[in-house]
C-alpha cells in the first residue's frame, strides 16, 4: 500500500506541475496584450502610459522564462499576487471563499450519499419491484431538471410559500451555527438532487453486478445471513465505482456551483470567479483557476487511495 501511495502521489505532483504550467501558458500566450485587454473599456483604446505601467506592475515586461520563474516562486510562497480592483491579496480572498464552496459541495455529497446509497442498494435487491420503479423514475426526473430550476423551485416553495427558511444568504459558523446550517441546507440540497440521482444509479448497477459474482453466491449457499452478505461482500465491492463517480462529479462542482451560489447568494469561490472574469482581473482569474485545478488533482488522488483500500487488487495494477 505504501508503494502504491508514493507512486500515486508522485503522479499527482507531476499533474499539478503540468496544470500550473498550462495555466501560465494559456494566460500569457493568448493573442493580444493582457494589460491592454484589462484596461480596455467599451472598445476605447487605453492610454499607452497606463498600459506600460500595468505591464510593469504585473511583470509582463520581463522575458517569458523570468515570468515563469517568478510565477513558481510566488506559488511556493502561496502568493497569487494582488487584485487589480481593490489591491487585496488574491490568496487571502481565495482562502476565505474556498472553504465555503467546499462546505457547500461536501454537504451536498453527504446528502446525496445518504439518499442514493441505501435506495440504490434496496432497489438492486429487488430489481423491477415497486421501490425500484419509483426510485428510478424519480432519479430520471432529477437528472433531467437543471440545477437553477431546482433552486428556484426550492426558494418558491420553502422560502416564499411555506416560509420555513430564508431565500438565501450567508452567516458565519462562528457567528450563529444554527442559522449557518439552515442557510446551507437549501443550496446543498439543490446540488444533491442531481448528484443523489447519479449515486442511486451507480449504486444500483454496482450492487446488481456484485450480487451475481461467485463469492456472493457461495456465501448465500453457506447460509450466511443476508445482512452480513450485503455489508461484507456486496457493499464493499460496490463502493469503488460509486466513489469514483462521486469524486468526478465533486471535481466538476468545484467550478460549477456558479448558478447555485448566485441563486442563494452564497459567497463562495464560483461567484468570485465570475466577478473576476467580468472585471478582467488577471491575478484573480489565474489564482482561482489554478486552485480549482489543483484541488481536482488531489481529490482524484484521495479517490485512488480509497479505491485501493477497498480493493487490494488495485494496488498491484
From TrEMBL:
<feature type="transmembrane region" description="Helical">
    <location>
        <begin position="104"/>
        <end position="125"/>
    </location>
</feature>
<feature type="transmembrane region" description="Helical">
    <location>
        <begin position="137"/>
        <end position="160"/>
    </location>
</feature>
<dbReference type="GO" id="GO:0005886">
    <property type="term" value="C:plasma membrane"/>
</dbReference>
<dbReference type="InterPro" id="IPR045621">
    <property type="entry name" value="BPD_transp_1_N"/>
</dbReference>
<dbReference type="InterPro" id="IPR000515">
    <property type="entry name" value="MetI-like"/>
</dbReference>
<feature type="transmembrane region" description="Helical">
    <location>
        <begin position="12"/>
        <end position="30"/>
    </location>
</feature>
<feature type="domain" description="ABC transmembrane type-1">
    <location>
        <begin position="98"/>
        <end position="307"/>
    </location>
</feature>
<protein>
    <submittedName>
        <fullName>Peptide ABC transporter</fullName>
    </submittedName>
</protein>
<keyword id="KW-1003">Cell membrane</keyword>
<keyword id="KW-1133">Transmembrane helix</keyword>
<keyword id="KW-0812">Transmembrane</keyword>
<keyword id="KW-0472">Membrane</keyword>
<feature type="transmembrane region" description="Helical">
    <location>
        <begin position="180"/>
        <end position="200"/>
    </location>
</feature>
<dbReference type="Pfam" id="PF00528">
    <property type="entry name" value="BPD_transp_1"/>
</dbReference>
<dbReference type="InterPro" id="IPR035906">
    <property type="entry name" value="MetI-like_sf"/>
</dbReference>
<dbReference type="GO" id="GO:0055085">
    <property type="term" value="P:transmembrane transport"/>
</dbReference>
<feature type="transmembrane region" description="Helical">
    <location>
        <begin position="285"/>
        <end position="310"/>
    </location>
</feature>
<keyword id="KW-0813">Transport</keyword>
<feature type="transmembrane region" description="Helical">
    <location>
        <begin position="242"/>
        <end position="265"/>
    </location>
</feature>
<comment type="similarity">
    <text>Belongs to the binding-protein-dependent transport system permease family.</text>
</comment>
<dbReference type="Pfam" id="PF19300">
    <property type="entry name" value="BPD_transp_1_N"/>
</dbReference>
Amino acid at each position: 500500500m505504501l508503494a502504491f501511495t508514493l507512486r500515486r502521489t508522485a503522479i499527482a505532483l507531476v499533474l499539478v506541475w503540468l496544470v500550473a504550467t498550462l495555466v501560465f501558458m494559456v494566460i500569457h500566450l493568448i493573442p493580444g496584450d493582457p494589460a491592454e485587454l484589462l484596461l480596455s473599456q467599451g472598445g476605447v483604446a487605453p492610454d499607452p502610459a497606463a498600459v506600460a505601467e500595468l505591464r510593469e506592475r504585473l511583470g509582463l515586461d520581463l522575458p517569458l522564462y523570468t515570468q515563469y520563474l517568478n510565477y513558481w516562486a510566488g506559488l511556493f510562497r502561496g502568493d497569487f499576487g494582488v487584485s487589480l480592483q481593490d489591491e487585496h491579496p488574491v490568496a487571502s480572498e481565495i482562502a476565505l471563499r474556498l472553504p465555503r464552496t467546499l462546505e457547500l459541495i461536501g454537504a451536498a455529497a453527504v446528502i446525496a450519499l445518504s439518499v442514493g446509497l441505501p435506495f440504490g442498494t434496496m432497489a438492486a435487491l429487488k430489481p423491477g419491484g415497486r421501490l425500484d420503479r419509483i426510485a428510478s423514475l424519480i432519479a430520471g426526473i432529477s437528472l433531467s431538471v437543471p440545477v437553477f430550476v431546482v433552486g428556484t423551485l426550492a426558494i418558491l416553495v420553502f422560502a416564499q410559500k411555506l416560509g420555513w427558511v430564508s431565500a438565501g444568504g450567508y452567516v458565519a459558523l462562528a457567528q450563529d451555527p444554527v442559522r449557518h446550517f439552515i442557510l446551507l441546507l437549501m443550496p446543498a440540497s439543490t446540488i444533491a438532487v442531481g448528484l443523489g440521482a447519479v449515486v442511486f444509479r451507480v449504486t444500483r448497477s454496482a450492487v446488481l453486478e456484485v450480487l451475481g459474482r461467485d463469492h456472493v453466491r457461495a456465501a448465500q449457499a453457506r447460509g450466511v445471513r443476508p445482512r452480513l452478505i450485503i455489508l461484507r461482500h456486496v457493499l464493499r465491492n460496490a463502493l469503488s465505482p460509486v466513489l469514483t463517480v462521486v469524486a468526478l462529479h465533486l471535481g466538476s462542482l468545484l467550478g460549477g456551483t456558479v448558478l447555485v451560489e448566485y441563486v442563494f447568494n452564497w459567497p463562495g469561490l464560483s461567484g468570485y470567479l465570475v466577478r473576476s472574469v467580468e472585471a478582467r482581473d488577471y491575478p484573480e482569474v489565474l489564482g482561482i483557476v489554478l486552485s480549482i485545478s489543483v484541488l481536482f488533482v488531489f481529490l482524484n488522488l484521495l479517490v485512488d487511495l480509497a479505491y485501493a483500500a477497498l480493493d487490494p487488487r488495485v494496488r498491484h495494477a
